[in-house]
Write a structure and sequence with these properties.
- 5% of the residues lie in helices and 35% in strands.
- It is mostly beta strands.
Amino acid sequence: MVISADSGDPLSGPLPAGTINELREVDLAGDTVREISINDLNSELAAASCAECNVTLDTFHHDVEPLPNGHWLSLANTTTVLSSTSTPPLTNGPATTVLGDVIVDLDQNMQPVWTWNEFNHLDPNRQPLNFPEWTHTNAIIYSKGDGNILVSIRNQNWIVKVNYANGAGNGSISWHLGEGGDFIEGGTDPTDWEYAQHGPRSSARTPPVSFRLV
């Protein structure tokens, strides 16, 4: 089993001393097979050379997606102060500490080899729900058909497809599913789109061919 152990809200201030904040794999006897803390991962990110590794993480949360090659796609969050002069700019309000999410690809030795930072790919001025808890990403779905990933972003009411390409992708977003996205809703817009979705899964993990997302 792979466990994401975390506690606390980075927007409320630093986590209390002694807070467990780590990913851990355990066998059926309860023995630890491998693990990494958020502090250790931040140290590894500081020394890593991947394109979006220049980030400091606050907490692991919600999801870890084990891959066929033994890697883990792990979900964590980070806070950034955004303003009219920041990158990306926040144009519809004062300078604000914003909570967003980062996906980190950890190899078999718990080394970060690829990252995807939502601050580099989404517009912080889109704020449908609970800003400044801007994204609240809650699920990663690996698409073995093309090696890319689907990412469920609860506070954006979106599921997006990200160019992961088994670790060689540039992180661009191929499509957005939800209100204001890239698909047409057959019912009543916007009320028939998903809202604050949690834990979607593909019934057949072989996109880009036809598949059902539930």
